[in-house]
Design goal:
One of its GO terms (molecular function) is DNA binding. This is DNA-directed RNA polymerase sigma-70 factor. With 336 residues, the protein is of the alpha+beta class. The protein is built from 16 helices and 6 strands. The chain has a domain of 169 residues: Nuclear Transport Factor 2, Chain: A (Roll), CATH 3.10.450.50.
Length: 336
């Protein structure tokens, strides 16, 4: 590499691409942690082989080529991540049982800041947000790995077919064919469910809906919560494969199996291009509130249509850089 200044300069240049590469790897892999590992591997490989790069393409497209190969290698294991709604039918409340599945089963949430680079074009920002939403991510997981790469590069990142063909070492015709098949699969899987309609900045009505949701949830007011939920709303709780549909089963669950969440506190987070909350529930041992779940909310037509609660505080709260405990007033404890 030569002198230390050149090495430092390269580090800075590579680091500039970290967020967009993490977004790409997250869409490919469906896991926030695997995406960070893949990007780290990509940057290490780039650093080690930079002298062979020779500037034959842009640094950015070279990094995407390395990242694509890293992700395709990781996907060779054949694991497809999913949401509970992709794996089982809804469970009636009377039969509800909490059966966990291994971590690698699940599509994982991700903080917006780690995968959405700041862009000045509102349309570009909206596409980027929409492309990390849970429904779109779940549809991506149904594509074979190379089709997934083609669709993300062409539709989300707006690469030309010729650029994608060069990156994958294939023909433009092959890229166009893969894109057509990927679009058909996506249209089919996305047509099976109602999408939330939050792809841009929240409007005033949506902000009011979220304020009412916080008041209803923190007050554990099931009547108020029912008024905010769509009648066919769904609630999921990975790592449990149980999921519930309808206001009666959701509120019934919250007042029975989930009753320990009464009196909780919610802290806003930006997650998967959607509104969300860090959910802290009362801590009977220490007082105050302890981390419990990252909630991702899907809104449509002025109602909540999806409430996705990702349990497993040891992983999610540090990822979102959230306090490890709240005091009795719901504020971060000093030193936490």
């Amino acid at each position: 590499m030569g002198n230390g200044t050149a090495t430092a300069d390269l580090d800075v240049q590579l680091e500039k691409h970290r967020v967009e590469l993490t977004g790409y790897c997250y869409r490919m892999l469906g896991s926030s942690f695997e995406a960070e590992d893949a990007v780290q591997d990509t940057l290490v490989r780039a650093w080690r082989s930079y002298e062979k790069f020779e500037g034959r393409s842009s640094l950015r497209s070279w990094l995407y080529r390395i990242a694509t190969n890293v992700c395709l290698d990781m996907l060779n294991a054949g694991n497809k991540r999913a949401r509970p709604v992709d794996l089982t039918d809804a469970t009636p409340l009377a039969q509800a049982a909490l059966s966990p599945r291994p971590d690698h089963t699940w599509l994982e949430p991700v903080p917006d800041a780690r995968v959405l680079p700041s862009v000045s074009d509102p349309a570009e920002a909206a596409v980027a947000k929409e492309s990390v939403r849970l429904a779109f991510m779940a549809a991506l997981q149904k594509l074979p790995p190379k089709q997934r790469a083609v669709l993300i590069l062409r539709e989300v990142l707006a690469w030309k077919a010729s650029e994608v063909a060069e990156l994958l070492g294939t023909s433009v015709a092959s890229v166009n064919s893969a894109l057509q098949r990927a679009r058909a699969t996506l249209a089919e899987s996305q047509g099976q469910e109602a999408d939330g309609d939050v792809s841009d900045e929240l409007d005033e009505e949506q902000r009011k809906l979220l304020d009412r949701y916080v008041a209803a949830f923190e007050g554990y007011d099931m009547q108020a919560l029912t008024a905010l939920l769509h009648e066919d709303a769904i609630m999921t709780m990975p790592p449990f494969d149980l999921w519930l549909r309808g206001t009666g089963d959701i509120t019934g669950f919250m007042t029975t199996i989930g009753a320990a969440c009464a009196g909780s506190r919610l802290m806003p987070v930006a997650v998967n291009g959607l509104p969300g909350f860090a959910h802290y529930k009362p801590d009977p041992e220490r007082g105050g509130f302890t981390p419990w779940a990252i909630q991702v909310l899907e809104l449509s037509g002025g109602r909540l249509v999806g409430l996705h609660c990702f349990l497993d505080t040891a992983r999610w709260f540090p990822l979102f850089e959230l306090p490890a405990h709240l005091d009795v007033e719901g504020k971060p404890d000093e030193g936490e």
